[in-house]
Automatic annotation (TrEMBL):
Catalysed reaction equations from the record: sphinganine + octadecanoyl-CoA = N-(octadecanoyl)-sphinganine + CoA + H(+)
CDD domains on file: homeodomain
Name of this chain's protein: Ceramide synthase 5
Main location: endoplasmic reticulum
Membrane topology: Multi-pass membrane protein
Length: 348
């Protein structure tokens, strides 16, 4: 184990020339470097965040939803049927004509009745608008709060405020792993679990490697538009189309400014060119900047998609409709987009 640890934490890979781990442990008065042990605080904090989320959604978000006439409601459930349930869970959720005819004869049901059962069974697993509104309101509240908090401490070295910013972000992703087992199960359950696990590891490594200044900046750049996306979702669930349209336009502008201007001109310029002059390249430097460049490529790709959707929506006067199509597209491609995004934005 000692040999494996020494190989993994090789100074020749992680640190610039003439810098050792001992240098980071010898702290001058008033200066503190990150230590991996600091991150253990995130585990109990994650449980606390998970508990806060449950209370927030049950009492605050739910009350807000009801005030906007978004009631929980109980959708029509499919009547219990062992034969159809087995087909639904193990064969297909959308039976074709051949399956429908076979089930109709087997159960002595009309084909339309079989179709209706499958439709009710599919809808039974879908989260209600009330549930989606509460989840979006929780994410909106967290993203907005952590963004304001992070901007406040952005220009500081490792202070207690910067430490809490990192640990709270880490604890939030731990809490997402916990909440996956209580939330409504979605098709991307396994993918998102791996995604959250990777995020936890990468945030931890970025902190332990003293990349807190760049890491905090990148997280703030991404958080700047995340809460706007959730706000637009809430407006759509509440059927406030004009509000949804307006927020989506603001979201698009913020997305473009942060991902296509601030990120390349400030973050990439600092990590690729200014750092070259200050410390020079070293193995992990090449890995870090390669990931940041991949992230910039994703920014360009998604900006293109948003621009195309926005132009089409404005020209047809159906921004909220196309916004939800974009949101659904993000959800369906969450792994391909977020895995690369998280790798770069948490690793730094």
């Amino acid at each position: 184990m000692a040999a494996l640890s020494a190989w993994f934490w090789s100074e020749r890979f992680w640190l610039p020339h003439n810098v050792t781990w001992a240098d980071l442990s010898e702290q001058a008065p008033g200066v503190e470097y990150p230590k991996p042990a600091h991150l253990f605080t995130a585990l109990p904090l994650a449980l606390g965040i998970f508990g806060v989320r449950i209370l927030f959604e049950r009492f605050i978000a739910s009350a807000c939803a009801r005030s906007l006439h978004i009631h929980p409601g109980v959708g029509r459930r499919a009547q219990p049927n062992a034969v159809l349930e087995k087909v639904f869970t193990s064969i297909t959720k959308n039976p074709d004509t051949r399956h429908l005819d076979g089930l109709s004869k087997q159960l002595d049901w009309d084909v339309r009745k079989v179709q209706r059962w499958f439709r009710h069974r599919r809808n039974q697993d879908k989260p209600s608008t009330h549930t989606k509104f509460c989840e979006s309101m929780w994410r909106f509240t967290f993203y907005l709060g952590i963004f304001i908090y992070g901007v406040h401490f952005l220009w500081q070295p490792l202070s207690s405020g910067m430490y809490y910013f990192y640990v709270i972000q880490l604890a939030f992703y731990w809490s997402l792993m916990f909440s996956q087992f209580t939330d409504i199960k979605r098709k991307d359950f396994r993918v998102m679990f791996i995604h959250h696990l990777a995020t936890v590891g990468l945030i931890s490594f970025s902190y332990a490697n003293n990349m807190v200044r760049v890491g905090s900046l990148v997280m703030c750049v991404h958080d700047a538009s995340d809460f706007l996306l959730e706000a637009a979702k809430m407006a759509n669930y509440a059927k406030f189309q004009r509000v949804c349209d307006s927020i989506f336009i603001v979201f698009s502008l913020v997305f473009f400014v942060t991902r296509l201007i601030i990120y390349p001109l400030w973050v990439l310029n600092s990590t690729m060119f200014e750092s070259w002059d200050i410390v020079g390249p070293y193995p992990s430097w090449w890995v870090f900047n390669s990931l940041l460049l991949v992230l910039q490529g994703l920014h360009i790709f998604w900006s293109y998609l948003i621009a195309r959707i926005a132009i089409r929506a404005v020209s047809r006067g159906k921004v909220s409709h196309y916004f939800m199509s974009f949101s659904s597209s993000v959800d369906k491609n969450i792994w391909s987009f977020n895995s690369s995004l998280i790798i770069a934005h948490c690793y730094f």
